[in-house]
């Protein structure tokens, strides 16, 4: 069930990228501070929440983690619905996982809100000795595509907090400046996806608390 | 030294070691990878081989069967396995009832292989697995499979060590499938299916079991496009309307696509969701009766978690509902409770087929033709057998370990086995079995259940013979092979009576 804290916003963020790049461990590192070398393959969807403070706002981040294997893309459109942020993850030691970033991006824009905040994330930074994706190359690519960019390590925690927080901040900025359309603001929360106004979503208590 | 003959151990110890399978051993973990790698000394495995994780054995999640009952069941299952075709054709209701009660752990692997038709497939394709196994496989599949090997049941002793026997076999089975069906390749959800099979049988058997599940039980689930699983999501949702209108309306209102909550349930046949005792019971029934069992489990879980107004009041959004369905209360997944609930869901194979038809029509209207046309779904062991009638020799049991037995011809061995089992039965029968009070009597049992016990008996299990194909048409090829019997199928043939006196009386009312 949801957390007891009250919050100002709920942001749905999806983790996408090839199988085995560390999406599930980024999720567990950020929401539970856990890392597992032998975490189970993700079949279907996993998700977790964490509440963070940004300026004076309390943000509840709902992170959805999806299966990376190509075959599952047929069913991932349902996961993108309502997402306002995405971390497109690749493995810095496996160039192929980076090469598919473009395809993932297309997939994302096909199904998600056009204003979605996207960060390209090079994970497994701890494997620097095995690196096959130069940082500059990825950075250039991100810039060209208008994506944020960061390298992380779910294993040793490097930049995990920073990556998520930057994405959440960027989403918040967009929402606060009303840069996004009314339609996408309503997607900010999943508690009541059918036509609520942004005002209705602000300053609410925990959505699933009845008492 | 214990004498083992065709699955029977002369000294009745705590477990019967089956000889057709090398891994069935629910009591001991000797020689497992975890011990070889020096893990086990400080880590206790449970009786299923788990050293941790949420699916591990717990008294609360399972329902133990007294040893005497288990011994009786073993005798009955050995007898069924010895005369498999007759039981499947003439007494399938009994096979079903006994699968519902739970297959004895010592014989589970063998029974699964027989039920699924994997045994027949293996016999009819001798040398095929070795051939597939010797091929390197397509690099793109090999890469993905290798990445997944250490991510299947990491808390099970068989799969705990990197590169250990379990992971090696898992690789062999999955890679063999990609060579066997290059157009299908590998889909991640096949790994847990293969792993569950490998916990119960050697690699070759597990391979044929996987083939049967992918092609007969759940055709199309793992194919490119994943259309079959999406279609089944719609079918599940439509069936829910009848089983729990409240849950249905809630999911509808919050626009929760079935694919969001049922993908892992169905693609893995609940092997990653339920406590282990329940996984095994669900698989016993699933391999006997087919996919309707998977639908029923899904319906039970949805109904339990979302079936009352009170529960819905506490979960007001899509995400909250999803969270609820990811954290199913243990009491609903408890072995005994879950099995009883599954048996009560009024959803038959015919219902599934009817809804399949409706949803397929809708799909074609909205999305066009299916890109990948899977073979027709087989609803259970009997239909699988009737569709591809086995030869007599396909059903013969081929023990791989025979100790202290002079090399007899197969027939001789069989005769001996029967005599032995008769002796065993008489031993069991002479002191009449003390009535063990059964908290969960089955109404269909032929013996009156013990004195009324606390929980009320569930309504009679629905007789589902109507959903089975007309016997007379399809049975014939097998009947030709079977020795002639003048008795109507409802009664036992003289042969059965002679060797199955105990099997016909159900003293065991544990569900």
Automatic annotation (TrEMBL), chain A:
Keywords: GTP-binding, Lipoprotein, Membrane, Nucleotide-binding, Prenylation. The keyword Iron does not apply. It is found in: Cell projection, Pseudopodium membrane; Endomembrane system. PANTHER family: DRAB11-RELATED (PTHR47979). Interacts (GTP-bound form) with RAB11FIP1, RAB11FIP2, RAB11FIP3 and RAB11FIP4. Interacts (via the hypervariable C-terminal region) with ITGB1 (via the cytoplasmic region); the interaction is GTP-dependent. Interacts with ITGAV. Associates with the integrin alpha-V/beta-1 heterodimer. Interacts with VPS33B. The gene is LOC118292124. Pfam families: Ras (PF00071). GO terms for molecular function: GTP binding; GTPase activity. One of its GO terms (cellular component) is pseudopodium membrane. Belongs to the small GTPase superfamily. Rab family. The small GTPases Rab are key regulators of intracellular membrane trafficking, from the formation of transport vesicles to their fusion with membranes. Rabs cycle between an inactive GDP-bound form and an active GTP-bound form that is able to recruit to membranes different set of downstream effectors directly responsible for vesicle formation, movement, tethering and fusion. RAB25 regulates epithelial cell differentiation, proliferation and survival, thereby playing key roles in tumorigenesis. It is a lipid-anchor. It comes from the Eukaryota. This is Ras-related protein Rab-25. InterPro entries: P-loop_NTPase, Rab_GTPases_membrane_traffic, Small_GTP-bd, Small_GTPase.
From TrEMBL, chain B:
One of its GO terms (molecular function) is GTPase activator activity. Residues 413-428 have a biased composition (Basic residues). The keyword RNA-binding does not apply. Residues 102-290 form the Rab-GAP TBC domain. It comes from the Eukaryota. InterPro entries: Rab-GAP-TBC_dom (IPR000195), Rab-GAP_TBC_sf (IPR035969), Rab_GAP_TBC_domain (IPR050302). It holds the Pfam family RabGAP-TBC. Residues 10-22, 493-504 have a biased composition (Low complexity). Keywords: GTPase activation. SMART domains: TBC. Residues 447-461 have a biased composition (Pro residues). Residues 1-41, 356-511 are annotated as: Disordered. Gene3D superfamilies: putative rabgap domain of human tbc1 domain family member 14 like domains, Ypt/Rab-GAP domain of gyp1p, domain 1, Ypt/Rab-GAP domain of gyp1p, domain 3. GO terms for cellular component: plasma membrane. Residues 471-483 have a biased composition (Polar residues). This is Putative TBC1 domain family member 10A. It comes from Scophthalmus maximus.
